[in-house]
Design a protein that fits this description.
- With 376 residues, this protein is mostly beta strands.
- It is 5% helix and 50% strand.
- It is elongated and about 95 Å long.
Length: 376
Protein backbone atom coordinates (compact mmCIF):
# COMPACT_ATOMS: atom_id res chain seq x y z
CA UNK A 1 0.00 0.00 0.00
CA UNK A 2 1.14 3.56 -0.59
CA UNK A 3 -0.04 7.13 -0.08
CA UNK A 4 1.48 10.33 -1.41
CA UNK A 5 0.32 13.61 0.07
CA UNK A 6 2.50 16.69 0.44
CA UNK A 7 2.11 20.42 1.11
CA UNK A 8 5.18 22.63 1.34
CA UNK A 9 5.40 26.08 2.94
CA UNK A 10 7.86 28.67 1.63
CA UNK A 11 8.54 32.22 2.90
CA UNK A 12 9.14 35.11 0.48
CA UNK A 13 12.61 36.55 1.17
CA UNK A 14 13.15 39.00 -1.68
CA UNK A 15 13.15 42.76 -0.92
CA UNK A 16 10.38 43.42 -3.47
CA UNK A 17 6.75 42.39 -3.06
CA UNK A 18 5.70 39.09 -4.64
CA UNK A 19 3.39 39.03 -7.64
CA UNK A 20 0.37 37.09 -6.43
CA UNK A 21 -1.12 36.80 -9.92
CA UNK A 22 1.56 34.57 -11.42
CA UNK A 23 3.19 31.20 -10.90
CA UNK A 24 6.89 30.89 -10.10
CA UNK A 25 9.26 28.38 -11.65
CA UNK A 26 11.29 26.00 -9.54
CA UNK A 27 14.40 28.13 -10.14
CA UNK A 28 12.56 31.30 -9.05
CA UNK A 29 11.26 29.48 -6.00
CA UNK A 30 14.80 28.66 -4.90
CA UNK A 31 15.88 32.25 -5.55
CA UNK A 32 13.04 34.22 -3.95
CA UNK A 33 11.70 31.83 -1.30
CA UNK A 34 13.03 30.09 1.78
CA UNK A 35 11.65 26.65 2.70
CA UNK A 36 9.82 26.73 6.02
CA UNK A 37 7.83 23.57 6.59
CA UNK A 38 6.18 20.58 4.99
CA UNK A 39 3.01 18.77 5.86
CA UNK A 40 2.20 15.46 4.31
CA UNK A 41 4.08 12.32 3.63
CA UNK A 42 4.95 9.63 1.18
CA UNK A 43 4.35 6.39 2.98
CA UNK A 44 4.57 2.86 1.70
CA UNK A 45 4.08 -0.44 3.39
CA UNK A 46 3.34 -4.05 2.63
CA UNK A 47 -0.11 -5.54 2.38
CA UNK A 48 -0.38 -7.69 5.50
CA UNK A 49 -3.08 -10.16 6.62
CA UNK A 50 -5.44 -8.97 3.91
CA UNK A 51 -9.07 -10.00 4.16
CA UNK A 52 -11.77 -9.01 1.72
CA UNK A 53 -13.84 -6.18 3.26
CA UNK A 54 -17.58 -6.84 3.33
CA UNK A 55 -20.83 -5.73 4.93
CA UNK A 56 -23.16 -7.92 6.98
CA UNK A 57 -26.74 -6.84 6.36
CA UNK A 58 -29.94 -7.96 8.01
CA UNK A 59 -33.35 -6.66 6.92
CA UNK A 60 -36.75 -7.61 8.25
CA UNK A 61 -40.06 -6.02 7.33
CA UNK A 62 -43.79 -6.37 7.76
CA UNK A 63 -46.62 -4.90 5.69
CA UNK A 64 -50.33 -5.21 6.24
CA UNK A 65 -53.45 -4.00 4.43
CA UNK A 66 -55.43 -3.67 7.62
CA UNK A 67 -58.51 -2.30 5.88
CA UNK A 68 -59.38 -1.81 2.19
CA UNK A 69 -57.26 0.99 0.73
CA UNK A 70 -55.01 1.33 3.80
CA UNK A 71 -51.54 -0.20 4.20
CA UNK A 72 -49.05 0.03 7.04
CA UNK A 73 -45.50 -1.26 7.16
CA UNK A 74 -42.36 -1.44 9.28
CA UNK A 75 -38.78 -2.25 8.26
CA UNK A 76 -35.64 -2.73 10.33
CA UNK A 77 -32.20 -2.52 8.65
CA UNK A 78 -28.95 -3.54 10.35
CA UNK A 79 -25.54 -3.22 8.68
CA UNK A 80 -22.08 -3.91 10.06
CA UNK A 81 -18.85 -3.31 8.17
CA UNK A 82 -16.44 -6.19 8.55
CA UNK A 83 -12.71 -6.60 7.88
CA UNK A 84 -12.14 -2.87 7.39
CA UNK A 85 -9.03 -2.20 5.33
CA UNK A 86 -6.79 0.68 6.45
CA UNK A 87 -3.27 2.04 6.59
CA UNK A 88 -2.00 1.12 10.07
CA UNK A 89 1.16 2.00 11.99
CA UNK A 90 1.75 -1.18 13.90
CA UNK A 91 4.04 0.65 16.35
CA UNK A 92 1.79 3.65 16.92
CA UNK A 93 1.56 3.02 20.68
CA UNK A 94 5.35 3.42 21.13
CA UNK A 95 6.16 6.01 18.44
CA UNK A 96 4.61 9.03 20.17
CA UNK A 97 4.72 10.89 23.48
CA UNK A 98 1.43 12.23 24.80
CA UNK A 99 0.98 15.62 26.51
CA UNK A 100 -2.20 16.73 28.27
CA UNK A 101 -3.95 20.11 28.29
CA UNK A 102 -1.80 21.83 25.68
CA UNK A 103 -2.68 25.49 25.02
CA UNK A 104 -2.65 26.87 21.47
CA UNK A 105 -1.61 30.50 20.87
CA UNK A 106 -1.30 32.64 17.75
CA UNK A 107 2.44 33.38 17.68
CA UNK A 108 2.01 36.69 15.86
CA UNK A 109 -0.47 38.31 18.24
CA UNK A 110 0.27 36.26 21.35
CA UNK A 111 -3.48 35.78 21.78
CA UNK A 112 -5.01 32.35 22.42
CA UNK A 113 -6.63 30.57 19.51
CA UNK A 114 -10.31 30.12 20.32
CA UNK A 115 -12.41 26.99 19.95
CA UNK A 116 -15.91 26.66 18.50
CA UNK A 117 -17.43 28.00 21.73
CA UNK A 118 -15.20 31.08 21.82
CA UNK A 119 -13.08 29.73 24.67
CA UNK A 120 -9.29 29.49 24.70
CA UNK A 121 -8.30 26.40 22.76
CA UNK A 122 -6.78 23.70 24.97
CA UNK A 123 -6.07 20.28 23.48
CA UNK A 124 -6.88 17.62 26.03
CA UNK A 125 -4.31 15.35 24.41
CA UNK A 126 -1.51 16.12 21.98
CA UNK A 127 0.76 13.39 20.63
CA UNK A 128 4.29 14.38 19.61
CA UNK A 129 6.41 12.17 17.36
CA UNK A 130 9.34 10.61 19.19
CA UNK A 131 11.29 11.07 15.96
CA UNK A 132 11.09 14.87 16.40
CA UNK A 133 11.97 14.67 20.09
CA UNK A 134 15.01 12.53 19.32
CA UNK A 135 16.03 14.88 16.51
CA UNK A 136 15.91 17.95 18.78
CA UNK A 137 17.35 16.14 21.79
CA UNK A 138 14.89 17.64 24.27
CA UNK A 139 11.20 18.16 24.95
CA UNK A 140 9.15 19.81 27.69
CA UNK A 141 8.95 17.73 30.84
CA UNK A 142 11.41 15.05 29.69
CA UNK A 143 14.79 14.36 31.21
CA UNK A 144 17.77 13.15 29.16
CA UNK A 145 17.10 9.70 30.58
CA UNK A 146 13.47 9.84 29.41
CA UNK A 147 14.57 10.83 25.91
CA UNK A 148 17.18 8.09 25.78
CA UNK A 149 14.40 5.58 26.41
CA UNK A 150 12.25 6.76 23.50
CA UNK A 151 11.95 4.88 20.24
CA UNK A 152 10.54 5.66 16.80
CA UNK A 153 10.06 2.81 14.37
CA UNK A 154 7.13 3.55 12.10
CA UNK A 155 5.86 0.30 10.63
CA UNK A 156 3.08 1.12 8.19
CA UNK A 157 1.07 -1.60 6.51
CA UNK A 158 -2.12 -1.84 4.51
CA UNK A 159 -4.04 -4.35 6.56
CA UNK A 160 -7.34 -5.38 8.04
CA UNK A 161 -7.98 -3.60 11.32
CA UNK A 162 -10.39 -4.61 14.06
CA UNK A 163 -10.46 -1.01 15.30
CA UNK A 164 -12.31 0.33 12.25
CA UNK A 165 -16.06 0.40 12.91
CA UNK A 166 -19.17 1.45 11.05
CA UNK A 167 -22.55 0.41 12.50
CA UNK A 168 -25.84 1.27 10.81
CA UNK A 169 -29.28 0.74 12.36
CA UNK A 170 -32.48 2.06 10.82
CA UNK A 171 -36.20 1.72 11.58
CA UNK A 172 -38.82 2.72 9.00
CA UNK A 173 -42.56 3.10 9.48
CA UNK A 174 -44.90 3.70 6.53
CA UNK A 175 -48.60 4.38 6.09
CA UNK A 176 -50.35 4.55 2.71
CA UNK A 177 -53.89 5.29 1.59
CA UNK A 178 -55.15 4.67 -1.94
CA UNK A 179 -58.63 6.05 -2.70
CA UNK A 180 -60.48 6.50 -5.97
CA UNK A 181 -59.42 10.08 -6.69
CA UNK A 182 -56.63 10.69 -4.19
CA UNK A 183 -53.68 8.97 -2.54
CA UNK A 184 -51.47 9.59 0.46
CA UNK A 185 -48.20 8.22 1.76
CA UNK A 186 -46.40 8.98 5.02
CA UNK A 187 -43.18 7.66 6.50
CA UNK A 188 -41.07 8.13 9.60
CA UNK A 189 -37.44 6.95 9.63
CA UNK A 190 -34.96 6.82 12.49
CA UNK A 191 -31.29 6.19 11.64
CA UNK A 192 -28.37 5.54 13.98
CA UNK A 193 -25.01 5.55 12.18
CA UNK A 194 -22.01 5.21 14.46
CA UNK A 195 -18.34 4.40 14.13
CA UNK A 196 -15.01 5.87 13.12
CA UNK A 197 -14.75 4.92 9.47
CA UNK A 198 -16.60 6.26 6.43
CA UNK A 199 -16.28 3.30 4.09
CA UNK A 200 -15.73 -0.42 4.11
CA UNK A 201 -12.18 0.10 2.84
CA UNK A 202 -9.74 2.85 1.89
CA UNK A 203 -8.68 5.78 4.03
CA UNK A 204 -10.58 7.12 7.03
CA UNK A 205 -11.11 10.59 5.54
CA UNK A 206 -14.39 11.04 3.67
CA UNK A 207 -12.56 12.68 0.75
CA UNK A 208 -9.94 9.92 0.58
CA UNK A 209 -7.09 12.10 1.81
CA UNK A 210 -4.72 11.40 4.67
CA UNK A 211 -3.38 8.24 6.21
CA UNK A 212 -6.13 8.20 8.80
CA UNK A 213 -6.38 7.75 12.52
CA UNK A 214 -4.58 4.41 12.64
CA UNK A 215 -1.37 6.13 11.54
CA UNK A 216 -2.01 9.63 12.94
CA UNK A 217 -2.62 9.32 16.70
CA UNK A 218 -4.05 12.83 17.17
CA UNK A 219 -6.87 11.91 14.83
CA UNK A 220 -8.01 9.22 17.25
CA UNK A 221 -9.12 11.85 19.77
CA UNK A 222 -12.94 11.73 19.95
CA UNK A 223 -13.05 9.86 16.63
CA UNK A 224 -15.70 7.33 17.70
CA UNK A 225 -19.21 8.70 17.46
CA UNK A 226 -22.07 9.65 15.15
CA UNK A 227 -21.09 9.62 11.48
CA UNK A 228 -22.36 12.08 8.92
CA UNK A 229 -24.46 11.25 5.89
CA UNK A 230 -27.85 10.39 7.43
CA UNK A 231 -30.39 12.43 9.35
CA UNK A 232 -31.32 10.99 12.74
CA UNK A 233 -35.03 11.57 12.05
CA UNK A 234 -36.88 11.97 8.76
CA UNK A 235 -40.60 12.46 8.16
CA UNK A 236 -42.19 12.52 4.69
CA UNK A 237 -45.77 13.08 3.60
CA UNK A 238 -47.11 12.96 0.06
CA UNK A 239 -50.67 13.80 -1.02
CA UNK A 240 -51.92 13.86 -4.60
CA UNK A 241 -55.21 13.58 -6.40
CA UNK A 242 -57.94 15.19 -8.42
CA UNK A 243 -59.08 18.56 -7.06
CA UNK A 244 -61.94 19.35 -9.44
CA UNK A 245 -62.68 18.44 -13.05
CA UNK A 246 -59.35 18.42 -14.94
CA UNK A 247 -57.39 20.14 -12.18
CA UNK A 248 -55.01 17.87 -10.29
CA UNK A 249 -52.55 18.64 -7.57
CA UNK A 250 -50.27 17.36 -4.89
CA UNK A 251 -47.92 18.29 -2.13
CA UNK A 252 -44.76 16.80 -0.72
CA UNK A 253 -43.60 17.62 2.82
CA UNK A 254 -40.17 16.54 4.05
CA UNK A 255 -38.88 17.25 7.56
CA UNK A 256 -35.50 16.01 8.69
CA UNK A 257 -32.98 16.78 11.37
CA UNK A 258 -29.66 18.23 10.22
CA UNK A 259 -26.59 16.21 9.35
CA UNK A 260 -23.97 15.54 12.02
CA UNK A 261 -20.69 17.45 12.22
CA UNK A 262 -17.75 18.02 14.55
CA UNK A 263 -15.53 21.05 15.22
CA UNK A 264 -11.93 20.36 14.23
CA UNK A 265 -8.51 21.86 14.94
CA UNK A 266 -5.74 21.22 12.41
CA UNK A 267 -2.30 21.16 14.05
CA UNK A 268 -0.46 24.17 12.63
CA UNK A 269 3.05 24.91 14.00
CA UNK A 270 3.58 27.46 11.22
CA UNK A 271 1.01 29.86 12.66
CA UNK A 272 0.58 28.70 16.25
CA UNK A 273 2.65 28.18 19.37
CA UNK A 274 1.96 25.32 21.78
CA UNK A 275 2.38 25.43 25.56
CA UNK A 276 2.33 22.60 28.07
CA UNK A 277 0.02 22.70 31.06
CA UNK A 278 2.83 24.23 33.17
CA UNK A 279 3.65 26.89 30.56
CA UNK A 280 6.63 25.37 28.73
CA UNK A 281 6.86 26.25 25.02
CA UNK A 282 7.28 23.59 22.35
CA UNK A 283 9.76 24.20 19.58
CA UNK A 284 7.86 24.30 16.22
CA UNK A 285 9.98 21.34 15.10
CA UNK A 286 8.45 19.26 17.89
CA UNK A 287 5.24 19.40 15.83
CA UNK A 288 6.84 18.66 12.46
CA UNK A 289 5.79 15.02 12.35
CA UNK A 290 2.17 15.69 13.35
CA UNK A 291 1.63 18.94 11.42
CA UNK A 292 -1.68 18.87 9.58
CA UNK A 293 -3.27 16.20 11.76
CA UNK A 294 -6.90 17.02 12.53
CA UNK A 295 -8.16 16.84 16.12
CA UNK A 296 -11.86 16.51 16.92
CA UNK A 297 -12.70 18.99 19.69
CA UNK A 298 -15.89 17.21 20.70
CA UNK A 299 -17.09 13.65 20.42
CA UNK A 300 -17.57 12.94 16.76
CA UNK A 301 -20.99 14.00 15.48
CA UNK A 302 -22.01 15.84 18.65
CA UNK A 303 -23.34 18.82 16.67
CA UNK A 304 -26.05 18.97 14.00
CA UNK A 305 -26.90 21.39 11.24
CA UNK A 306 -30.32 23.04 10.98
CA UNK A 307 -33.49 20.98 10.86
CA UNK A 308 -35.11 21.24 7.42
CA UNK A 309 -38.86 21.46 6.76
CA UNK A 310 -39.49 21.69 3.02
CA UNK A 311 -42.85 21.85 1.26
CA UNK A 312 -43.22 21.33 -2.50
CA UNK A 313 -46.49 21.87 -4.42
CA UNK A 314 -47.70 20.68 -7.82
CA UNK A 315 -50.74 21.71 -9.88
CA UNK A 316 -51.66 20.77 -13.42
CA UNK A 317 -54.69 21.43 -15.59
CA UNK A 318 -55.56 19.83 -18.91
CA UNK A 319 -57.26 21.89 -21.59
CA UNK A 320 -59.12 19.47 -23.84
CA UNK A 321 -59.30 20.46 -27.51
CA UNK A 322 -60.37 18.46 -30.52
CA UNK A 323 -57.97 15.55 -30.85
CA UNK A 324 -55.43 16.88 -28.38
CA UNK A 325 -54.99 17.80 -24.74
CA UNK A 326 -52.79 20.63 -23.55
CA UNK A 327 -51.52 20.10 -20.03
CA UNK A 328 -50.13 23.05 -18.13
CA UNK A 329 -48.26 22.31 -14.92
CA UNK A 330 -46.91 24.41 -12.06
CA UNK A 331 -44.31 23.20 -9.56
CA UNK A 332 -43.17 25.20 -6.55
CA UNK A 333 -40.17 23.85 -4.69
CA UNK A 334 -39.42 24.95 -1.12
CA UNK A 335 -42.63 26.97 -0.94
CA UNK A 336 -41.75 28.82 2.26
CA UNK A 337 -38.17 29.65 1.22
CA UNK A 338 -36.48 27.74 4.03
CA UNK A 339 -32.74 28.53 4.11
CA UNK A 340 -31.53 25.90 6.57
CA UNK A 341 -27.75 25.58 6.86
CA UNK A 342 -26.43 22.28 5.47
CA UNK A 343 -22.65 22.85 5.52
CA UNK A 344 -20.28 25.29 7.24
CA UNK A 345 -16.63 25.75 8.12
CA UNK A 346 -15.87 23.17 10.81
CA UNK A 347 -12.24 24.29 11.28
CA UNK A 348 -11.45 26.55 14.26
CA UNK A 349 -7.91 27.53 13.20
CA UNK A 350 -8.62 30.96 11.75
CA UNK A 351 -11.68 32.17 13.65
CA UNK A 352 -14.00 31.29 10.77
CA UNK A 353 -15.76 28.36 12.43
CA UNK A 354 -19.42 28.24 11.44
CA UNK A 355 -19.03 30.35 8.29
CA UNK A 356 -21.81 29.06 5.98
CA UNK A 357 -20.80 27.06 2.92
CA UNK A 358 -24.14 25.70 1.70
CA UNK A 359 -27.81 26.17 2.50
CA UNK A 360 -30.97 24.50 1.27
CA UNK A 361 -31.70 25.81 -2.25
CA UNK A 362 -34.20 28.66 -2.13
CA UNK A 363 -37.72 28.76 -3.50
CA UNK A 364 -37.99 27.92 -7.19
CA UNK A 365 -40.91 27.77 -9.62
CA UNK A 366 -41.21 25.63 -12.72
CA UNK A 367 -43.82 25.86 -15.47
CA UNK A 368 -44.36 22.85 -17.71
CA UNK A 369 -46.48 22.50 -20.84
CA UNK A 370 -47.10 19.28 -22.71
CA UNK A 371 -49.33 17.96 -25.47
CA UNK A 372 -51.33 14.78 -25.06
CA UNK A 373 -52.77 12.85 -27.99
CA UNK A 374 -55.48 10.32 -27.11
CA UNK A 375 -54.31 7.73 -29.64
CA UNK A 376 -50.73 7.57 -28.39
Amino acid sequence: GALLESDEYWDWIDASDPDLTRAYTRQERDQFFDFFDQSGTFDTGPVVDYKQPYVDQFIVGLESEFTPGWKAGAVYVNRRNRDVLAMVDRNISTNYTMYENVSVVDWRSGEPVTDHNGNDLVLGQLFISNDDILYLGDAPGLTPGDIAGLDFDQDIALTTTEDGERKFDQIQFTLARQARVWAAQASVVYTDLRGNFFTVNGYESADGLGLGAFVRPNEQTNFDGKLQGFADWEFKLRLDGNIVADLQGGLFLAIQTGDRYTPVYEIDPRNHDFYTEDGQLFDPDHLFGVSGERVFLEQRGNLTYDTQALLDLHLDYTFRLTGVGIQVGLDVFNLFGVDALTSADELVNFGTFGTPFFRVPGRSIRLVTSLRFPNF
